[in-house]
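Structure tokens please, single chain.
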Amino acid sequence: MNLHEYQAKLRFGEFGIPVPKGKVATTPEEAFDIAREMGKPVVIKAQVLTGGRGKAGGVKVAKTPDEARDKASQILNMDIKGHIVYKVLVDPAVDIKSEIYLSITNDRAAKRPLLMASSAGGMEIEQVAHEMPEKLIREYIDPSLGLRDFQVRNVAAEIGLPRAHWKQFGEIASALYRCYIDSDATLVEINPLAIVGTGDSEQIMALDGKFSVDDNALFRHADLAEKRDLQEEPPEETRARAAGISYVKLDGNIGCMVNGAGLAMTTMDLTKYFADELGATNVGPANFLDIGGGAKADRVAAALRIILADPKVKVVLFNIFGGITRGDEVARGILQALEEVKTPIPMVIRLAGTNSEEGLKLINEAHLPNLVGASSLADAARKAVQIAQGA
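Here you go.
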């Protein structure tokens, strides 16, 4: 689950990381009132869960309350990479001396948290890694020891941070690690972490933030779970989560219903493989969907309704290998869903394992013209691609 910038910075503030005292506005008039209350130039920032806001015109500086209202009016309802802007963050403008990149994420290969920092703050980290890899400093953290002081000093030295700021940088890095651990996060990112102010008032402050939380840990964080912005995710994913189904919307036109994450990935790969082999352009998986082990008819029906709600889907591919999940239960779920949602969309069905023969018998006896059987996964994937290509 991803948090908006304003939510991320509020969370950082709870751990003692300095952040601007901004407020959220949903209308131009609210932006006007906030800017007037601050009594100084402000930055109006679109709150959407995607990058590239600045390049898209979603970040603007306003010197007066009237200008803040005008800028907010321009940004609200803007479409940024398919995300509609429903709210803006109004932050007080600050005098930036220099910018740093700082993040902590999970390195699955190394099996430990990874702190990354760069003196090229303000740039997208992918761009830094590609164009200036020498500027990206990595420091692995032993989970049993936590982030050590010497590691923070090493990073501060490597990025060329002035010594006068080492102490505060260390406090911020340590607080960011505590935030990462205590929130069950998969990513906490500050970009930029900027040196702001002048003279004795000079300090380091988090001016932007990204925050991703492990969905599987949200039962421990009710306060974070309630921050999920349902407007920012496909409605199919919302319905799938409510039904206990693992679902991720993709851009293809072959709806996939599979039991088991590994089998689902294999199914998706095979559809892409046969699409390439047959020269089928714009053909591929429309979703990742794992109905899980032991799925009953009602869950299968719910999953099929979610798949059919996607207007891009031209064919549905079922790949069920019965172990805990029984083939006859899957068949009943398919027939139940088709009773509720009448559709002419072709469906390719591959059932194997527990009660697969019983399941295929139920489907055959239903005499539905848009159901196609398959003898193997490869056969099913090829047939789905051919149907999608013809559609």
